[in-house]
Amino acid sequence: MPTAAAVLFPWSDTYSVKIAMVDSQHKVLVELINALHQAMMARRGKESLGGVLASLIKYTKSHFAAEEGLLRANEYPDLVNHKAEHERFTQTIVEFQSRFQRNEVAMTVDVMGFLKDWLVQHIMGVDKRYVPHLTARGVR
């Protein structure tokens, strides 16, 4: 069990979009960011850090696909821009992973801060914009 100091990103109901599937997936992303942070703080080997980073990337892509599917099914009018946000983040994190694997960049507190800040800003800004549209269509 991680200590409070080891948790970079505690989940808060403030981040809830009030859509069960999305909130559940966001919580997993938060847990993965915290696991990556804990591995970094414990100075686990590159393989351990790389494995957690790979899991974060894989789950992020899965979450984005599910969220985009939900938005598409409910004819969200800003889907193109929302998807573009996802694509930019995916490109950034995949490039980071590639550089990490080539020993060109180390896992740092700054990188962890980037991951956390991006997710918070994405949830609080971009994701919360679709809530009224989906709620009006009965999505919970």
Give a quick set of tags describing it.
Four Helix Bundle (Hemerythrin (Met), subunit A), mainly alpha, 140 residues, 72% helix
Report a brief summary of the structure.
This protein is mostly helical and about 140 residues long.
Describe this structure in words.
- With 140 residues, the protein is mainly α.
- The mean pLDDT is 89.
- 72% of the residues lie in helices and 0% in strands.
- The two termini are 31 Å apart.
- Helix 1 (20-41) packs antiparallel against helix 2, helix 1 runs antiparallel to helix 4 (109-136) and helix 2 (46-73) runs antiparallel to helix 3.
- It has a single domain (19-136), classed as Hemerythrin-like (Four Helix Bundle (Hemerythrin (Met), subunit A), Up-down Bundle).
- The longest helix is centred in the middle third of the chain and has 28 residues, at 46-73.
Largest sheet: none
Q: Termini separation (Å)?
A: 31 Å
Rg, Cα atoms, Å: 16 Å
Which percent bin holds the helix content? over 70%
Which strand-content bin applies to the residues? Answer: under 5%
The named CATH superfamily: Hemerythrin-like
What is the CATH topology classification name?
Answer: Four Helix Bundle (Hemerythrin (Met), subunit A)
Q: Ranges with pLDDT <50 over ≥5 residues?
A: none
**Count of DSSP H/I helices:** 4
On the 0 to 100 scale, the average pLDDT is: 89
CATH architecture classification name:
Up-down Bundle
Overall strand count: 0
